[in-house]
Fold this protein.
Amino acid sequence: MPRQTIRKQSEDWELIPNLLDYDAARRNFSWEHERELLDGMPGGGLNIAHEAVDRHAAGDRCEHLALRWLDRSGEATDFSYGDLSRLTNRFANVLRNLGVKKGERVFALSERIPPLYITALGTLKNGSVFCPLFSAFGPEPLHSRLSIGEAKVLVTTESLYRRKVAALRDSLPHLQHVLLVRDSAQEKHPDDTLDFQQLLDAAADEFPVCNTNPEDPALLHFTSGTTGKPKGAIHVHEAVVAHHASARLALDLHPQDVFWCTADPGWVTGTSYGIIAPLTIGATMIVDRQEFEPERWYGILRDHMVSVWYTAPTAVRMMMKHGAELARKFQLPALRFMASVGEPLNPEAVLWGEEAFELPFHDNWWQTETGGIMIANFASMDIRPGSMGKPLPGIEATVVRRREDGSVELIEDADREGELALKRGWPSMFRGYLHEEERYRACFSGDWYLTGDLARRDEDGYFWFVGRADDVIKSSGHLIGPFEVESALMEHPAVAEAAAIGVPDPIAGEVVKAFVSLKPAHQPSEALRTELLALARRRLGPAVAPRQIEIHDNLPRTRSGKIMRRLLKARELGLPEGDTSTLESRE
Ligand code: AMP
């Protein structure tokens, strides 16, 4: 079958791409060389915040615009590299004055406002571990993450604290300090909290950045699996080598670029590429406080001369809904590269980019555990719409089949499906799941890290996403563990069992749908269904809660008692039910 290809021609380039020839770049690549492009610390140390901020602030990029923040009205506040260096020094001093040590975990729960960025980088300067939380989480996901992560410090806003955290405080024994960012001038902070701004104002401008070892933990990112609690993926300072390399090679970032990553730092993309990577390059990054709104977004691209834009399929689909004509009304001469991540990017969306912006979207693939982009469509490489692209230089990717004994068979044939696997050893590979050694070990077979995604590779080495090998749900680019949803529903006294699956949605990719069965003496009713929807939304927050709930007499289980989510999904989608030989007979 002939494949559609978008050809790249050198006369189209406004700037010579950092990666000009894919094969040559792979051949000549070494992580040692990438490491040399960074500063490092005395004696072989490495600190992400030094590479992102201080090395520029100490040089001729001190006055260069590092961060332009847009408030709700669209008004800009600018921070140069020098400003960012001083403010993050101050926050590091705040932590030190509070007695927060190297390796201790500092969490942030906040909308996209400057204190979030100051917290992230100041925490790294102090050698502490930064852990972002998504502001649309409800109390349940927040509690599990704060307690698994043994948060010592939480930076949040007054209103998020009152709405979501205050009631949890007694059950978080490790949480010693809560620093609140004021939402309005009148409010008086609750007694057991501190004022973020007051502490920052009182702190000194100078701070000797902690000389962290490359293998010291720096970031903790929670992700979800099919079963069990959320997993805290640990990343180390060495990850910055991959952040920098992938920003150069996969996003084609240059120091003169204005870069806009639309992801929220509550998720890994918003930290790796919404904070760290563009700063390591010395570029200018745009942060918008508001959520998607097409005219606002196109206005930002135009008014702030965004040259490289990193967004997500859900956002692209929302833009498509509003039509290419609207986008074409905005003159965007600065825009030269557009990329997308987080979910499958349909070929129509890649092509729509050309229609609306005269540029294609470049899909790329990675996940929380990989810490940085692993597979990408590069600026200089022909695009096959619908494909995730090719592995980055320094990354070896393949497709495997798991054998019963835990080993893997490499699938060499083109176009055969299998699990996507990566050869271990790249700098931003996660170094563990916090307190869960067994779950970490289960991700590897010999030298291969098994991603949990199904993919195939074509005869020219392009990778194509097929689906997930497990039951996790991707909704609006956010990974949701079914177990977390089911546990919240099980809290209701009427619920006997619960199962959550993802069902297709034209904009969000998937939305969560839950099935429950009731305990004896409880009858299904519309009122109960609505009550369950409301409970889930209250406990889990809008990012995680199911949009639909169905009440069934009982749910299909295997004879060993596991609910068969796959069967529910097959029935929901009208697909073949597959092997049901282990199905319990009462179903
Ligand atoms: P997260 O760890 O939350 O970043 O989610 C990672 C998962 O998102 C991957 O394992 C994939 O299932 C999915 N994903 C990320 N990027 C892509 C992509 N370009 N195409 C298809 N799925 C993707």
Summary: The CA atoms of residues 8 and 381 lie 6 Å apart. The pocket of adenosine monophosphate is lined by residues 223, 268, 341-345, 363-365, 367-368, 388, 451-453, 465, 468, 474, 479 (CB under 6 Å).
